[in-house]
Amino acid sequence: MRDIPEAFAAHLAQGVTTLCRCWSLRRRDGVALGFTDHDRDLTFSGLVHEARTGLEAAEASAELGFAVSGGDVAGALSSLGLTEADIAGGLYDGASVETWLVDWTRPATRLLLDLATIGEVRREGDAFVAELRGLTHRLDAERGRSYRATCDADLGDARCRVDLAAWRTAGRVTAIPEPATVSAVLTGEFPDGLFTAGRLTWTVGANAGHAVDIRLQLGDLIELWTVPPRPVATGDGFTLTAGCDKRLGTCRDRFANAANFQGFPHMPGNDAVARTVPGSAAILDGGSLFR
């Protein structure tokens, strides 16, 4: 049951209210932004909540038990903080959001409605809709190790222990044949596919600091999984980090790191579970195969 502050309860009891919604957003890089659907700026907790953002709340839901609750917030991309490039660049992925119901005549009189994180963001032209996921969505996140044939570590992390410095190279864009594909000059010579499933980090140009996964690398042609958030120009610089397909053969032959392989390559599959014992009669009546 929600505890309603005494001052807020007294305001509701008046019958005629002066309420609006405010959203306090904090990105993972520490940047804090405030928004409101009121027609003027409101300030509380040291944060200015901008009114000229065109934000409005959609229907929100709350669920009993462990079901994930949430809602949507929609608005227009503007110069007050939200830009298409930042959203596409993932700066708002996983950002925390506080939703407040505020008396706009006295912002100190307010009620915290929900704590959420930003999930999927859909963009259409100059507008966007951001999904707000309740705290219970974290229960869906994978925890611990996975029992599978392939490795569940990330290349270069504390369990993998591969030194990524030896598996990086610099490059420079020479052409952009497709929005998510670049031709480049790389420092050094590398076999095809070495950087497939790896990472490209922009170092020079409009996308500097942004990183993206590599879908395919063939010679000097690099295909990305997503289009960079800002336009790419010839001469833009980047670094490439090698990829790994998580198989034991790749870990052993490419990285000489089989001792740190974090998978179970000899795990029996479904075929081993379903097969009959060699030499037994082919009678599948539900009885023991070892009698």
TrEMBL record:
Residues 193-271 form the Bacteriophage phiJL001 Gp84 C-terminal domain. Signal peptide: none annotated. InterPro entries: Phage_phiJL001_Gp84, Phage_phiJL001_Gp84_C. It holds the Pfam family Phage_phiJL001_Gp84_N. Transmembrane segments: none annotated. It comes from the Bacteria. NCBIfam families: phg_TIGR02218 (TIGR02218). This is DUF2163 domain-containing protein.
